[in-house]
Fold this sequence. Notes:
Blueprint: H1 3-30, H2 39-73, H3 86-89, H4 94-100, E1 105-106, E2 115-121, H5 128-139, E3 144-147, H6 149-154, H7 156-164, E4 168-171, H8 185-199, E5 208-209, H9 218-226, E6 230-232, E7 236-237, H10 246-253, E8 261-266, H11 276-291, E9 295-297, H12 299-302
The structure holds zinc ion (ZN).
Residues 121-122, 172, 176, 212 line the site of zinc ion (ZN).
Amino acid sequence: MDPPERKQYSQERPCITSSVLYIDSGNISHHNPGVKSRMGITSDTARKRIAYITIALVILSLAYLAGQGFRSRRQVAPPDLAGGLERDNRQLGEADLERLFPDIVLRAKKGDEKLIALTFDDGPDDVYTPAVLDVLQQKQVRATFFLIGNRVEKYPEVTRRIVEEGHLIGNHTYTHPNTGKPLGEQLRTELERTEAALAAFGVSPSYLFRPPYGALTAPAALEVANMGYRLALWSVDSLDWRGLTKEEVLNNVLPHIAPGRVILQHSAGGPGEDLSGSVLALPEIIDHLKQQGYTVVTMDEMFPASN
Length: 307
Ligand SMILES: [Zn+2]
């Protein structure tokens, strides 16, 4: 069974039903004894109308039968797709999500107010996150950290420091699963466990959820929207997770600075991932923003919950 095809068939049936109803009501009016005196004109009009209706009915019937035919024509099922079904494997990236779910996706604030949000994913850890915090403290700016729940539990001191230094914390799941694939109930559990881990530090649940890898299935996007989350994506990607040098990170960020943009960096990585170029680039990014007259804000300041 294939749900997208099934949906298509069920959409065609009502069309036919409604045209049948229309013909019936037309017939009733022509058999009305009150119009007998204008029989000549009426019968011409009636013939034309019947002709139009017949053509419409034939077209609709052919379309209906063609739709039915695709499935009944299948004698032998095609070999399975080795990588699984398209709908289970296609990842909706940040641009797709914005197009499909404009009401819940946050990527850039419209307008020309010179605001910029610095965001850091995948922390905390005890190497890069403290280094990022040092730079932010020295430059006196606040950022948004999308933290992973099990790392929050592993590095309580660093989590406490993020909270105490006034940064904003958003939800980045508990174990960082690939949210571009269907996770079923696991996604809700991931989000709730992270909220619970953060509650131990006095952090109330955030409406900002950043899906790992910036990917999410369409049903999952609807589910998290129903949970009250908005998708906190980005509009400038430093690509720092690739272990880039400071210069490479600066090249990925500075030319794309514009009012209302959200910059993505990481404050922790996977085993062996080197984020030192990203940390070294950060003071220069902040200096550049200040020189250009930007105000660095957190994502809730840029996208208030009530909007
Ligand atoms: Zn991540």
